[in-house]
Hints:
Layout: E1 8-12, E2 25-32, E3 35-40, E4 44-48, E5 65-68, E6 72-82, E7 93-97, E8 100-103, H1 109-112, E9 118-129, H2 132-138, E10 142-146, H3 160-166
Parallel strand pairs: 5-9
Antiparallel strand pairs: 1-2, 1-10, 2-3, 3-9, 4-5, 6-8, 6-9, 7-8
Amino acid sequence: xxxxxxxxxxxxxxxxxxxxFRRSVVLVLHHDEEGAHGIVLNRRLEARVDAVLPDWQPHVxxxxxxxxxGPVGLDSALGLVTVPGDVSEPLGVRLxxxxxxxxxxxxPPLVVMPELAGLRIFAGYSGWAGGQLEDExxxxxxxxxxxxxxxxFTSDPEHLWVDVLRRQRSKLALVATFPExxxxx
Length: 185
């Protein structure tokens, strides 16, 4: 693999298992020769944001719950935000790509929220050592597709896997019809 995947989506193939990655859609936040990290966009948790970050609860994009960003660092939180327009980096935000960034959750919400259009809080993240993600892709564990701005803040995260696959303009769209249990196909 000669290109890096920052800003792309990793869509789990029907063969990808596990509690976190089965039918997951991962937004790659950073990828280089040393490794990659991202967040699972479609693993909503039962907990509300105010269980851990009460000041942020009124500002999160519905559904207003915590999401599990991955299996790594579950005791930490990441705030993914979208910054509208073509503006400079707002106070407390580190822009990543395409208007998406990470907010410093120690910044008072009232300082940063007027500059933002969307916010979602993730417990943990997904991480790969150098070459590990590339090996998983070659082994058929992930489809790599373009991300759309609405993916990170979908109001229907449970259907994101199907939605992302259906919009593909290739045979990949057919994968969206695979049953939950591939042995039932």
